[in-house]
Write a structure and sequence with these properties.
elongated, single chain, alpha+beta, five-stranded mixed sheet, 619 residues, Purple Acid Phosphatase, chain A, domain 2, 25 strands
Length: 619
Amino acid sequence: MRVKVLHFIVLTFTAYFAWLGSFLLESLYQGLPSEEAMKERNRQKGNEPPFPGAENDNIIWFLQISDIHLSHYRKNNVSGAFRYFCSETLDTIRPSVVMATGDITHAKYADSRSSKQFQIEWDWYKEILNECSVREKVAWLDIRGNHDNFDVVNHDHDSNIFRDFSVSGEAHGSQSYLYTHNTSFGGYSFIGMDACPNPGPRRPYNFFGILHDEDLQVLSRLSTLAKQRSNATMWFSHYPSSTITTHRHGDLRTLMASSVAHVCGHLHTAADFVYKMYGIHPSGHLEMELIDFTGNRRYRLMAFDHDLFSFTDTTLTQWPLVLITNPKDAHFSLPSREPLGRMAHSTHIRFLAFSTSPIIEVKVWVDEKPLGMPSRQGEGPLYALPWSPDKYSTGLHKIMVTVKDSSGREARVEQVFSLDGTTASLDLLPQMLLLPDLRALTRVGFLFLWMMVVVSLLLAWCNHGHPSQVYPIVKDKLTFFTLLCFEIYFGIGPWYVAEVLTGAYGFVGAHGVYVSGHFLPGSMTYLYGTAQMVLFHIPFIFYLNHIKSHDRHVTSLKGKLFNGGCHVIMFLLWLLQASWAITIYVYGWVAVVLSPGVVWIVPMSLALVWRARTHKVRN
């Protein structure tokens, strides 16, 4: 009987890992269409005029700001900084478009654990926009972030304050939308993607975005319209595409594949590990996460110059601000999205320079050799300098621009460029955060650990009585089957009952959150489950087996020290497990009391330890 069970377990485990492997590969490589047709089209376009010259035309510039986090409780003067951005910065740069990519408000209490929408924070946002006459200056495109969606029952509920106190909320509601900026040289489209969960639970379980099939249909229609009416398309959202859950992740990447870039926020600095988070998808488009405005006061300047895309990230009040648009940075060359050949046919180096004080000196170097002083083109921020691109026709080269203003401030910008298609590589860590499907990876990681634990316990039961038995707890059926049943339950059952929305209770488990008739697929729950497996479940199983087989039979000093270390480590892990009750207390006392997957495990594990130390098993 046990042999048959063993064979069944092995076959099931093999099939399961085959599914995990195919799921992981699908999440990494879905939605990657061939680039050759688009490359050829842009190669031909690159050999056709207009080419970048001295004329002040064929150029458009725009801004992104993200993670403003206007807060009633935090005292970091972000409202004053945001007011400066909306007045001084916009008046100086005069962009055509500003994309505000979510987390406009902080929506947290002073303890930073509990969350809800605060009317006063949205009042500040609307008041600053109105005081600075933002709508008269620029096309202001805002979109919701996860903080703007804390404790929001649905799109049409009064708790969704974004709907009435934002610019796009008044025009489009809490929906994805398309804006096209038309110029004499073509249109440029901006697709705002709202991926906030609906309903929006209180923190921490809305860190990942969700797009349902009907949302993807809307985005598909917007993408088709954008391709028909514009030279280039930009996507913007709060969530990076790696943190957006869809039925098939490749569907979203396929929709984005025709765009030049997707700009987003949300990850801030990845816990101070990454300050430049850029990546180029295998499909050919660029993804760029912007560091937060609330703590780092960062924003992004972008431009299309003869349909060549360039950008720079900068800090508020940092002047002069310089963006080289021709030749563009080789790190971000997009051969299937841009007419890169226009650089080799250009007659002038071109760049934008802004400052709150008059600019008095501008110089350009290429490969550390001075080329001269560019001239300003008209009354705008464009500067141009004649050059001979034939001198730099192969390999990578470096261009440097220095700009001084009358206040004594100086900016120096350097970047590498290439005219023959040579590219410069991007850092690996940012691409690891932006390019894969992080939700799929967390799911695979959790299920792998969970299946390893369950299958190893079942194999130990099948192997019971063998001299090589490594799980002594198998000898005590009550202890063993209690542990086995709990591990199985942890992977498939609800962990606790919680007030996920104000006045609405639901279930939270590894595979997601169920509340108010809606199921929100697992994402952060998989991360939480993985942490539980690594920091408690797996160590506890080893600890339980250790005290069952060795704890009472050790006489040497070395063995006693080892035992003491095991007890200390397990005690600390018990304290950590108990402290996780604080995490779910944000959902109320009910979540703590009705919590078989988090809180109940502490007394249950203590009871199993007591039994392992006191119960003698007959051979």
